[in-house]
Specification:
Strands 1, 2, 3, 4, 7, 8, 9, 10 and 11 form a 9-stranded mixed beta sheet that branches. Strands 5-6 form a two-stranded antiparallel sheet. 30% of the residues are buried. It is an alpha+beta fold. It folds into 2 domains: 78 residues, 2-Layer Sandwich (Alpha-Beta Plaits); 93 residues, Alpha-L RNA-binding motif (Alpha-Beta Plaits). The radius of gyration is 16 Å and the shape is globular. The longest helix is centred in the middle third of the chain and has 9 residues.
């Protein structure tokens, strides 16, 4: 039977177990949090993003989760700079043209500030510019896609938390902790 682990990846942690790219680097990896042999991340979550990372020892499941052809929905809670308008949300829902092509349509809605853990280090705010939270659900996973999409519509990303992949969520999992399912 496949092993599946839901990890709440903290901010500033690489989505891999080793950091071979920079010998002697102080960059933190998954090995600081998950001491389980034989499991690997199903997909990526950028170092400056937080939230749900699924680890598994099942290659087929890993492919179903991470390959865009399976259209696995991924839900993000995105703190943006500015006050989103209905027109900006509609652009995200329709899909936006990025340098690597048009994105698939997304589900996008304005949400109240979610009850999340404090980020370390804290998000840097500008007192003169409002911020807001958007829930964004996408079915692909291009490099830095959510950040590029929100920036494209004039809403730079301040904080990005992946809350769910399909039916799996972070509910009840603190940062740096994981749960077998």
């Amino acid at each position: 039977m496949a092993r599946v682990i839901l990890l709440n990846k903290p901010f500033n942690v690489l989505s891999q177990f080793t950091d071979k790219g920079t010998e002697g680097s102080a960059r933190e990896t998954l090995s600081s949090y998950v001491k389980v042999p034989g499991v690997y991340p199903a997909g990526r979550l950028d170092r400056d993003s937080e939230g749900l990372l699924i680890l598994t020892d099942d290659g087929k499941l890993q492919a179903r989760i991470s390959n865009p052809k399976f259209k696995q929905p991924k839900t993000y809670l995105v703190q943006v700079e500015g006050s989103p308008t209905e027109a900006q949300l509609a652009q995200l829902r329709k899909g936006v043209e990025l340098k690597d092509g048009m994105t698939r349509p997304a589900e996008a809605r304005l949400i109240p500030e979610p009850e999340l853990w404090p980020r370390n280090p804290p998000v840097r705010f500008r007192k003169s510019v409002p911020d807001a939270w958007i829930e964004l659900k996408i079915t692909e996973g291009r490099n830095r896609q959510v950040r590029r999409m929100t920036a494209h519509v004039g809403l730079p990303c301040l904080r990005l938390v992946r809350w769910a992949v399909g039916a799996w969520t972070l509910d009840g999992i603190p940062p740096g902790e994981w749960r077998d399912i």
